[in-house]
Structures are given as structure tokens and as C-alpha cells.
Amino acid sequence: MSESVVVHPMNPRYRIRPHPGSVLHRRECHAHPGGDCSHLALHHVDGTWSDEERAAHPEWTWNLVYLCRDAAHSCVPACSFVSILSSPVRLCLIFHLSRPVARESSVADKIAYLHASADWDEHWLREPCFQLSADSELLLALNSRQVSLIQSSLSKIGRAYDDMKSSGYLDKLASFFGDVFSSSSAPPRPTSTFGAGFSGYDRLDPDGYDRAGYTMAEGHSSTDWEARTHYQIAYFVELGRIFQIPASLNVAYDPCYSIVDVVVLAALGIRGLTRTDAARPFLRIFTTPTLFYAPGAEQHTVGDAILRTPDSTQLLLQVGDVTWCLEPHEAVDGSGESYEGYPHDLIAAYVLSYKKVAIPAHRIEMKPGEAREAPAGENHLLQWIPVSQREAFEKRRGPAREPDIRMMYLPGGGQMIDD
Ligand SMILES: C[S@@+](CC[C@H](N)C(=O)[O-])C[C@H]1O[C@@H](n2cnc3c(N)ncnc32)[C@H](O)[C@@H]1O
Q: What are the residue boundaries of the SRR1-like domain, all occurrences included (predicted)?
């Protein structure tokens, strides 16, 4: 797979690998869409990017679009010469940029630069590393408790990874996906991954409320929950390697994420999103083939992904059989359980069209003498809408859109938006 890297001309440390849904990734002339323009170059054209797209990128890249030599345009400020260097594996674009950068590099920018560094080129060719160097820039603003939580969490994820690898399970998984995606009825091969709801390592808010809601769950200790998180993140790392997804195009979101989780994930080549991350709207609308891995997800999390995806054939779900979403669920208005409404009706439409394949599972001993399926994806299936079913399904679903606002009822009696 070829990768694109965009480099700031005056500071070569500012490099990013644009998301495949970004205009920076689509090498198409902005002035002549669909045309066969040659000599494409990046130019700054004010007002070309949406607010969502800007929020997901470092500021110096905003409003850069490809234009051919023949395109008439006026850059703001006047654009200078832009050159393109290409090699078989990577297209590297260097442009002259006279705009000053107004915003300080945020943590998200720093992570983007780390993931676009040479250390992360073709990362799937080397073994993953489950530690972060003590002098990493990402640790600078954190306190010692956070740093130690990050390092201990990484080593636990590493142990889960080693367990799945040493048993031969990861090879089995790679060969399973190899077969699925080489078959004649294969879905599109994912160019990005999205992991939802792995839960996090630093979940208590200032009032002591567990943001993942585990204190309200029965039948699991917090150690059990965390073991599930180690396996799920380790598994997600492997999905990125199997599909050769460039670092930072593996995105993960859980509303309980804190800076600790974002840095843990960054160390593994994953872009973690918090609830308040401005990039979330852009990265949750799946406009290119995306593997959506959501182990132990809530029914709404699966429904929301289906509802948001413009071309439904590009969403590959890796969760338990979605027919589980047809079981009673908590009604959106909090008025008890419902068999109808959202997401029940949406999923009922989905199952009329979907195709599914079972994914091999891995058995582990979570407790001595108690072997069971690893919590990386119990009874998971790969599920998607085949091209031949797209029209019929989207007619039943309607246009892609954001779900209605849902409220979550907190133990202390308050409410917050649940997304
Ligand atoms: C039932 S727990 C499952 C946690 C873990 N994946 C497991 O299998 O044990 C659901 C997780 O989904 C998260 N979650 C809730 N709403 C979400 C959303 N809209 N998108 C992603 N994750 C969400 C919760 O914070 C929680 O960590």
C-alpha cells in the first residue's frame, strides 16, 4: 500500500499522514473534479475545507487543495511554487507556505507528527513496541502518576499481544482475513480502522464517577474489565498491521478516554479521541472503507456507525452478530426497555441486506482452570452491506445522518449527552 505524507516546508518535523477521507489524501484537482489533470500541486485556497475537516488537522494544512497547473485560482495569501516529489512507496509534498501558524502545536498535532515520522513508516514490518521512551514529548506535560499508568498499561497490552501471538492466534487471524479479502465476494479492503468502546485506564472523573459506568455493572471486577481492555487494544494493534493501515489512520474512541488513554494509544500508532476532541465529527463519518471494531459495544454504538456512513458498503462491522441489537434495549427517552425505535428499526433494516462471516476466536485462561474465548471479540463476525444490496438498504435507512441526541442518566441523578 502506498502512503502519503505531507511535510511543512519550513519545519520538516511537521509531517502528517492525511486520513483517506481528507482532501489532502485525494489526489484530484479541486478545480476539475473527475478530470485527468497532470502536474498536480498543493495550493492554499481559502474556504475550501469544512469546519470538521479543519478541526481534525494541524492548522498549517487548512485549506490546502490539489490544483493542476492550468487551474485559475487566487491563493490567500498569494501562493508560491509548490513541488511534488514522488517515489514508488510514498508521495512527499513540499509546499511553500507563508502563512504564520497561529495555533501552538496541540497534543493531537504532536501525535500526528509522531505517527508520520520515519519510525512509523510501514510499521507492520516490525514488531510492535509496548513502551514509550521516558523522554517522549508526549509525556512532558503529564504528572508521575499518569506516566506510570501509561507505562504499566502499555506493558499489560504487550502481554496480551504476546499471549495471542505465541499461541499462533494472530497468524490464524491474518490468514483468515487474507482469505476473506481475496474472495470474489469480498467487501472493500479497509483503508482505516475505527475502534469503539475499548474502555480506558484512567476513568474516574473528579467526583469519583467511573466514566465507563463500570461501577454500575455487575459480575465483573475492575481487574476483569481492564484485562478485556488489554486484549482489545492488542487485537486492534494487530488489525492495523494485518491491513497495513498507516499509523494515525487507526482511530479509537471511547467517551471515557482521558489524556492517559490518548498517549497509551499514540504509543501504539493509534489516534485516540476524547469526548471533546474537535476531530471527532470528521473521523466518525466513514467516507472510505473502514473496519469498525467494537467489542462489547452498546447497541447504539453499532447503530450510530451504520447511520453515519454515507456509502453503507464501506462500513465493515466487526462485532457480535448485529441481530443482538434486536433484543430489548434502553429506550432513548430513558423510559425503560423497548423492542422498537432506534436502533432496533435500523438494525432490522440492516439484517435484511447484510452479509456475514464468522471470525476465528482465541481461547485463553482468564482465571486458572477457566479457559474461555479471549475478550478481544467473543463470537465476532465480519458484517457488511454488499454492493448489490446498497440501494435497497439505503432506501430503508434513508440518508446518512447524525443520530438524535440521547441523554445518559448518572448515578447521582444528573444527566449528560450519551455519545
Ligand atoms: C459495556 S462496555 C464494554 C467495554 C469493553 N469493550 C468490554 O468488552 O469489556 C461499553 C464501553 O463503550 C463505551 N461507549 C459508550 N458509548 C460509546 C460510543 N458512543 N462510542 C464508543 N464507545 C462508547 C463505554 O464508555 C464503555 O467503555
A: 224-320
Q: Return mean pLDDT, the chain.
A: 87
The length of the chain, given as a count of residues: 419
Tell which residue, 287, 283, 282, has the closest CA to residue 311.
287
Give the mean model confidence (pLDDT) for residues 349-362.
95
Residue whose grid cell is 485560482: 73
pLDDT for position 31 = 92
Pocket perturbation via mutation, ligand 1, pick of 193, 220, 224, 301 by most ligand atoms within 8 A of CB: 301
List pLDDT tens digits, range 299-326. Answer: 999 999 999 999 999 999 999 999 999 9
Sheet holding 192-196, edge to edge: 270-273, 250-253, 192-196, 290-293, 315-320, 380-384, 355-358
For 315, counting Cβ atoms within 10 Å of its Cβ (0-12 exposed, 13-18 middle, 19+ buried), the class is buried
Give me ligand 1 centre to Cα 253, in Å.
Answer: 9
Compute how many other C-beta atoms are within 10 angstroms of the C-beta atom of residue 205: 12
User: Is pLDDT of 336 > 90?
Assistant: no
Three-state DSSP state, 370: strand
pLDDT band at 214 (very low <50, low <70, confident <90, very high): low
